[in-house]
Amino acid sequence: MEPNNVKRPELDDRPSWNEYFMELTSVVAKRSTCLRRNVGAILVKERRVLATGYNGAPSGLGHCAEVGCIRETHEVPSGERHELCRGLHAEQNAIIQAALHGTSIDGAILYCTHQPCVLCAKMIINAGVKRIVFAGSYPDELSTNMLKEAGVELTEFSK
């Protein structure tokens, strides 16, 4: 039996599912090793987290904080020359983690701290992700156009 002095949370105080999953992406982003932008992503299906990812160097390789940022050294603007980077994007890492552990993400929702770039968009489309909920915009019109053409729903998160 519960003691009488225990305060029970009101149902109205609970976050919505979108709020809950977006808050989790912020926690995942704290693991990022990127010097420019901390990004977190989670893949969800039927309200269950399937995989998480954050941006940073591949497993076992030196992080940018240790070896330096190629993009900073060459003054590469955000949204350009993605190949000039040691790191994987959070969305890529989430997809890779699902594949590594044999978890299908077909029909999943991707929650992400930032709107995906075109490289990630192509992977998201082919992985069968049906919806993306993101918080921060990213300057990549091609990504937006390809996702729309593929029927992937894009939802900008607002609390």
Write a compact overview of the structure shown.
The protein has 159 residues and is an alpha/beta fold. The chain has helices at 17-29, 64-67, 70-73, 90-100, 118-127, 141-149; strands spanning 40-45, 48-54, 109-114, 131-136, 153-156.
Written description of the protein model:
The protein has 159 residues and is an alpha/beta fold. The model has no long low-confidence stretch (mean pLDDT 92). The chain has helices at 17-29, 64-67, 70-73, 90-100, 118-127, 141-149; strands spanning 40-45, 48-54, 109-114, 131-136, 153-156.
Topology of this protein?
Blueprint: H1 17-29, E1 40-45, E2 48-54, H2 64-67, H3 70-73, H4 90-100, E3 109-114, H5 118-127, E4 131-136, H6 141-149, E5 153-156
Parallel strand pairs: 3-4, 4-5
Antiparallel strand pairs: 1-2, 1-3
Helix pairs in contact: 5-6
End-to-end C-alpha gap:
36 Å
Summarize the biggest pleated sheet: 5 strands, mixed
Morphology call: globular
Could you spell the SSE succession in H and E letters? Answer: HEEHHHEHEHE
Uncertain residue segments: none
Q: Please give the count of helices.
A: 6
What structural class do helix, strand and pairing data support?
A: alpha/beta
Strand content: 15-25%
- Count of distinct strands: 5
Descriptive keywords:
single chain; 159 residues; alpha/beta; five-stranded mixed beta sheet; 6 helices; 32% helix
